[in-house]
Amino acid sequence: MSSPTTTTTTTTTTPTHKLTPLATLTPPSNSRTWQSAPHPSLPIVATACSDRSVRVYSLTSFTLLHSITGGHKRSVRTVSWKPNTRGQSVLATGSFDSSAGIWRREENGGSGGMENDFTSRRFGGAEDDSDNERDEADDYQFSCILDGHESEIKCLAWSPSGQYLATCSRDKSVWIWEELEDDNFETVAVLQEHDGDVKSVAWHPEEDLLVSTSYDDTVRLYKEDADDWVQVALIEGHAKTVWWAEFEGSGMAGRDWRKDATNTSNTTLSEQQRSEYITELERSGPRLATCSDDCTVRIWRRKAKEGDDNASNKTGVPSIIRSAAIDEEWYQDAVLPRVHERAIYSVSWSRRTGMIVSAGSDGKVIVYKERWRGQAGGDEMDVDGAQAQGLTEWVVVAELFSGHDVFEINHVCWAKRADKGRRTEDEEVVLTTGDDGEVRVWVLDAVDASSA
Fold it and tell me: How far out from the chain centre does Cα 167 lie?
């Protein structure tokens, strides 16, 4: 599909930022680590490990707080924190043993604030003898197991409301579970649209819209229609396996590039052009980023529906009678500058700045930024060699080589910075998770132009 606003740039510019190592979470795992998930409100992060454990680290002290074991018989491949919980943390884990586990931990105070870090007591530390006899209630308790998949679970994700949990598997299926009450889950959908191993699932930030990516090179989206979950869109465009998908932040969040004075004063676009483009973005809602074995990161946008979406046609027939009314059209909005040389396993969209970070098999970590077209050095060409026509363009602002030495990077994400060295309350760090068993923390700093 195409659009007059499509931005498909492949040329990079001189990096304006650099990724500087801040810490490595200690102690690291002695086996491969797959994915790290920052907690939605606490300064902690959970990491899925091949040794059948999940490690929970502090982002304040960068040390291990909890090692969650005993729930799975094989490698833990994926983790996801349930959002909007009060008084407890709820963690979902997915494993190569085909099952998903639910874990709970009571949090003292339950305010969800930065003060609830619980980093004064290091896991396995010798500072306090009472650590060896601590109350089991301080640990994550195994609550229940979700069985149904016939093969390895590759990814799982909670919906923004916490009502649904989606899981996907090598068995080519996507399952949606609804939590009716604590430890009581019901299977509400088994989706079998993909023709290959399903690599990832993710939820839209504003509605119950689920996306999945697969070995079959496609991206698919699902919604509930008349008490049944159905596929509402099929996205084709990647030439090989699509490893990961993530939605843009909700509303104005994560689009600071619009308000950046240097980003608007140096462009040849008129204020009206920029205003109309922003309005169009708001109508279509959060965009979707995907990454693939074809070494590209692509951005997709939903085509906004005209008129009243609750009516199927001008005759006034209710849309519930005509399921096709919920079908959606997603088109390619951009192909980010091509920098990776091998498969890109993970991509993450900053909710604060709108920057995107990617990482993968080549060990590179790349940070991209969107800006208005028409700025200095902004004459990029599209993938066919013609001048790109979109109102914005994506440029590489930072490039890191060998982020985990010779090892592949399986996952990358943004997290809120919580250590004493943070410079602002909303500063972010980048977390990379690798085959070496390590989770590394990076700070994104602007490069002094005068020294470049």
Answer: 15
Give the separation between CA 287 and CA 251, rounded to whole angstroms. Answer: 11
CB 432 within 8 A of CB 409: yes
In angstroms, the CA 280 to CA 285 distance is 9
pLDDT tens digits for 382-415? 443 333 457 889 999 999 999 999 999 999 999 9
What architecture is domain 7-451? 7 Propeller (2.130)
Q: Is 405 helix (H, G, I), strand (E, B) or coil?
A: coil
CA angle 298, 303, 309 (to 5 degrees): 145
> Considering the entire predicted model, what is its pTM?
0.87
Domain boundaries of the chain, sorted by first residue:
7-451
Integer CA distances (angstroms), 409 to 95, 228, 342, in order? 19, 37, 11
- Block residue for tokens 């923004």: 160
* 330 φ/ψ angles, rounded to the nearest 5 degrees: -115, 135
- What's the Cα-to-Cα distance from 278 to each of 136, 272, 282, 331, rounded to whole Å? 51, 10, 6, 17
